[in-house]
Design brief:
The protein has about 650 residues and is mostly helical. It is about 65% helix and about 0% strand. Among the domains are: about 5-115, no CATH class; about 400-470, Methyltransferase, Methionine Synthase (B12-binding Domains), Chain A, domain 1; about 480-635, Lysozyme, CATH 1.10.530.10. It is built from 39 helices and no strands. The longest helix is centred in the last third of the chain and has 20 residues, at about 605-625. The protein is globular and about 80 Å long. The relative contact order is 0.05. Mean pLDDT is about 95; it is low at about 1-20 and about 645-660.
Length: about 650
């Protein structure tokens, strides 16, 4: 064994035996962090001797495994198998090893070391590695498992990496690529808008009739009304259901009510009846409900109960709510599954329907079960009973011994060090992975530790893992108090509402960016940030400026004020607009008569926005308590929602894109 290998193996073993001296003073910890950064820089520059010297001075430092892993990555080759496996055995269940494992697997695949690949493979989200795993199974003679992996990788609406080609070739050569698999992938591809992939897949359907159907399917994708003109009577083919469903679905997205009428005529004319068309029926009923169209409730009710999905069952309730048809609300709630009926949401709406239909005693009994809970529906139930909200603070109780023990958890130590170095993303990954190894009591101690160092988002997530929801100091912290107070006062906003929005938007993560591009504490889109800057007579030269907490809070509160001014001074409407856009909220307003605000919130078409509004309203009440005030009742804040006032200016929403209605 080489001297270098002995050094690496020795360091891995040594770091397992030495613990980070938590009693050390701040100067020592700062010095260790500086040495770590110097070692990283030396490794980056290829200064091996300097790196080794610095590494020897970092014995027991929590982030030293990162240095060892990075060094192994730079020198990867199959001959390092022993060193790599020693490292992965020690750290394999932690994020610190993820990068090394990915690169190691790629290295083994490059050298076609398939048995070694299978030995070191763990389930991966990386498509390339998933394909290489299939290749490894083939190379190791595990043909049956390889073909199963090939089928899994085949079923995608998007193109797969080149590394999947040998796997697919083996599937084809073994006669395992069936016509059904080809059509199923075509359906995934056309739903994903990958028309070029559909054309490519057609080569695996040699029959001329099949090729004609594929061409027709592509035409339907461009002109969905073609399905209404075709004679479907007596046509029996595997393409009938996917092509017909695709065409009707596209028409439904444009005008669900018109499509319902046209579909009824088409199926009557062509005898298109039976369960195989249930997906079309459900889609029409669902989109009529999502868009509050006349006849939506009847359409849902016309489907046999066993053909309704859970989603459609819920939208049956909402369709009845939108019409304030309380007997039908009760009927539709009774048609939910037992699992759904047990949810606080549907318990509340059952109680509301019972109350509205004269069954007051039964309604009050349900409210009594909900009112002690500190969630949105618990607060609504408390309002119906005239009770105060259950927002009492019960702090996490941990002993000094429990705190000392959790501070020795290596994954948490690494997370805290990464937090200190402002490497928040890797730090969160380490924290969450470590939390998964803790019991409830240990997770409570971890929550307290995160609170002590001001890592609010990880403290909150730890209380979730610990199943401890009553420590309000941890779950509802008060960071950035000065900025929030100043901006709330300047804009005549309730600071509790600002805190509620901020907690839901970012969990107080200053550095966070969403997949849509929203940034910072209040998750402001760059284009929206530029527009708000203009309102302030400023320019936003760089979208990264939105990550500055004070600027983000100033811009976010300005935008909240604009939503409140434009939308009936209504907290539910303004909150929904902050999430989904004011133009969408205006489309969700009742057309003629007022709608109770709780019913309006329930019938928001987007799951994300509906849940967002419910949480923010609940958090606002809790934050009022945290700020030393009596919580305002949700019912006092939720006036009936009025129909659209045509003179109200429509502004763009905070979020870009169009969320999928759910």
């Amino acid at each position: 064994m080489s001297i270098l290998r002995l050094m690496i193996c020795g360091l891995v073993a040594l770091f397992a035996l030495h613990l980070w001296p938590l009693h050390a003073d701040a100067d020592f910890r700062a010095g260790q962090r500086e040495l770590f950064l110097q070692a990283e820089e030396a490794l980056r520059k290829g200064q091996q001797q300097t790196f080794r010297t610095l590494l020897s001075r970092l014995e027991g430092y929590p982030l030293t495994p990162y240095l060892v892993g990075q060094d192994l990555e730079r020198r990867l080759c199959p001959s390092l198998a022993h060193d790599v496996r020693s490292y992965l055995e020690k750290y394999g269940d932690s994020p610190v090893a993820d990068s090394l494992r990915r690169k190691w697997l790629s290295e083994l695949a490059k050298h076609r070391r398939w048995n070694d690949f299978l030995q070191d493979y763990t389930p991966q989200s990386n498509e390339n590695l998933q394909c290489l795993y299939g290749q490894a199974l083939l190379g190791a003679g595990k043909t049956e498992q390889a073909m199963e992996q090939a089928r899994v990788m085949w079923l995608s609406g998007n193109s797969r990496p080149k590394s999947c080609d040998p796997l697919f070739e083996a599937l084809i050569n073994s006669k395992g690529l069936t016509r059904e698999l080809v059509i199923e992938r075509m359906q995934l591809a056309i739903n994903a808008g990958q028309i070029s992939l559909v054309r490519y897949l057609s080569r695996f359907l040699p029959a001329e009739e099949d090729k004609a159907w594929v061409a027709y399917w592509q035409s339907v994708n461009e002109s969905p009304r073609l399905v209404l003109d075709r004679n479907w009577k007596g046509v029996e083919n595997d393409f009938v259901i996917p092509v017909l469903t695709h065409g009707i679905r596209k028409l439904t997205r444009v005008d669900a009510s018109r499509t319902a009428e046209e579909w009824d005529r088409l199926k009557l004319r062509n005898g298109l009846i039976g369960e195989r068309f249930s997906a079309i029926e459900e889609d029409i009923a669902l989109y009529m409900s999502l868009r509050f169209e006349d006849g939506a409730l009847e359409r849902v009710g016309s489907l046999p109960g066993d053909l309704r999905s859970d989603r459609l069952r819920e939208w049956g309730v909402r369709a009845a709510l939108r019409r304030l048809d309380w007997p039908q609300v009760l009927h539709m709630v009774d048609g939910l599954t037992e699992r759904q009926k047990a949810e606080p949401r549907w318990q509340y709406w059952r109680a509301r329907a019972l109350e509205q239909t004269g069954w007051t005693e039964q309604a009050l009994a349900i409210y009594e079960t909900l009112a002690p809970e500190s969630h949105y529906f618990g607060m609504l139930a408390a309002d119906r009973l005239g009770r105060t909200y259950n927002v009492d603070h019960a702090p996490i109780a941990v002993t000094s011994e429990q705190m000392a023990a959790v501070r020795q958890e290596a994954g948490l130590q690494r997370a805290v060090e990464l937090f200190a170095l402002e490497r928040y993303g890797p730090g969160r990954s380490e924290w969450q992975k470590a939390l998964g190894r803790l019991d409830n009591a240990q997770a409570q101690a971890a929550a307290r530790w995160a609170q002590e160092i001001g890592w609010h988002d990880r403290a909150i997530t730890a209380t979730v893992v610990a199943r401890h929801s009553t420590d309000l100091d941890i779950r509802f912290p008060l960071p950035h108090a000065a900025a929030i107070t100043i901006q709330s006062n300047a804009k005549n906003l309730n600071p509790a509402w600002v805190y509620g929005v901020m907690r839901q938007e970012s969990l107080f993560m200053e550095d966070v960016g969403s997949s849509a591009g929203a940034l910072g504490l209040m998750q402001i889109m760059p284009q929206t940030g530029k527009r708000i800057a203009g309102w302030h007579g400023e320019q936003l030269s760089d979208s990264r400026l939105l990550l500055q907490p004070d600027r983000n809070i100033r811009f976010g509160t300005t935008y909240l004020r604009r939503q409140l001014d434009d939308l009936q001074n209504h907290y539910a409407l303004a909150t929904a607009a902050y999430n989904a856009g004011q133009h969408r909220v205006k489309g969700w307003l009742p057309r003629e008569n007022e709608l109770p605000a709780d019913a309006w919130v329930e019938t928001i078409p987007f799951n994300e926005t509906r849940n967002y509004v419910e949480r923010v309203l609940c958090y606002t009440a809790i934050y009022e308590h945290r700020l030393g005030n009596s919580p305002t009742r949700l019912s006092a804040r939720l006036a009936p929602v009025r129909p659209l006032n045509g003179s109200t200016q429509v502004a763009e929403g905070k979020e870009a894109g169009t969320p999928s209605p759910q």
